[in-house]
Amino acid sequence: MAIANAYERAMKTRQLQTLVAIAERGTLMAAAEALCISQPAVTKSIKELETQLGLQLLVRSGAGVRLTPYGEVLVRRARTVIAEIARAGQELEEMRTSADPALSIGVSLLAASAGMPDALRAFRQRFPAAQLNVYECQPAQIVDGLRDGSFDLCVAFVADTDVTAEFRVTPLGSVTQSLAVSSGDALAKEPLLSTLRDAHWLYNFARESVPAFWSAFCGARELARPRRISVCTSQRLYADLASEPGVVSVWTDFLLDEYVARGVLARLDVDASLPRLTLGLMHRKDLVFSAAAQYFVECVERAGLHD
Fold first, then answer.
1. Percent of the chain, pLDDT > 90?
2. Cα separation, 219 vs 108, whole angstroms
3. In which domain, by residue range, is 254 found?
4. 27 and 65 in contact (C-beta within 8 Å)?
5. What's the angle, vertex CA 92, arms to CA 86 and CA 97, rounded to 5?
6. Where is the HTH lysR-type domain (predicted)?
């Protein structure tokens, strides 16, 4: 009887995996390819699951399949079940082989100063023998690293306009942004958008995100983007370039405060609001959390968002 019950539970787990694959891929064929089984096997598995539950989980059409409300609820729960089973298997394997846990973390240059040192120290105390790899990199490198599996987890600032739908992003906090010029710069006396647009702008994210940033910054006002925009993602070089006369720079306020207090830069009081940035913990949706990865997440959440 015990063997029969174990077999039945295993069968249901495979059926749940099939349902999740269909939900994520959108078609039976794509799900079959992802699971390395035939399409008839996918169809059979879902029909058996629907029969066992007495509920319709999918609606089939020429364009593919979509989940019914019952299917949506089951998929949401199934993801948790599947992830926990995979995580348990991973932990058991680590115990069997006595292997030290390994974790690769990508951190954006800006996020490196926002609570990360405390999080890493706490993690090392719990897992002193862990093979921990931490890479400070630019946003494009973070996206590529998550896609190809180079990074298990990433911590980065993201704007509302950034495309992050392919990843899971857990918000850790948000920060405001401001514009600044060198202390005593004539631009501070007349901070009008029409005047500032003709200045030399300094931006600290990827150039590809400039159009979305400018659109959010201008709001309903239609103003052409500045003609001179330099992009610099080095925090030290950025401060040096921002202190030059005639340069308008974009800053997160928690970093800008230090330079304003030292009299190096002056915050501009403009008639517009810059988009907020969210510090997010990012990972692939199919990531199976090891014990080390889960604890690192807890360390980051406890560290919070601060200088």
1. 14
2. 27
3. 177-275
4. yes
5. 125
6. 11-68
pLDDT (mean) for 177-190: 84
Q: How far apart are CA 49 and CA 51, in angstroms?
A: 5
Q: Which residue has the tokens 């539970």?
A: 9
Question: Domain total for the chain?
Answer: 3
Residue 306, pLDDT above cutoff 60: no
In 3D, which of 58, 70, 73, 74 has the Cα closest to residue 26? 58
Q: Are residues 39 and 73 in the same domain?
A: yes
Q: Are residues 221 and 297 in the same domain?
A: no
The tally of CA atoms less than 13 A away on the side-chain side of residue 182 is 15
**Strand pairing partners for 133?**
104
Of the candidates 285, 302, 2, the residue with the CA atom closest to the CA atom of residue 153:
285
3-state secondary structure of 37: coil
Structure confidence at residue 265 (pLDDT): 93
Structural contact between residues 182 and 242, judged by C-beta atoms closer than 8 angstroms: yes
Which of 51, 78, 96 delimits the end of a domain? Answer: 96
In tens, the pLDDT along 60-99 reads 876 678 889 998 888 888 877 777 777 666 666 665 655 6
Residues 120 and 254 reside in one and the same domain: no
State how beta strands 167-175 and 153-159 pair: unpaired
pLDDT of 252 above 80? yes
- Least confident window among 80-84, 129-133, 210-214, 278-282: 80-84
Residue 60 near residue 68, CB atoms below 8 Å: no
The CATH number covering residue 53 comes to 1.10.10.10
In whole angstroms, how far apart are CA 182 and each of 55, 186, 237, 285?
Answer: 66, 9, 14, 43
Q: How much is the pTM?
A: 0.59
User: Rounded to an integer, what distance in angstroms lies between the CA atom of residue 251 and that of residue 268?
Assistant: 11
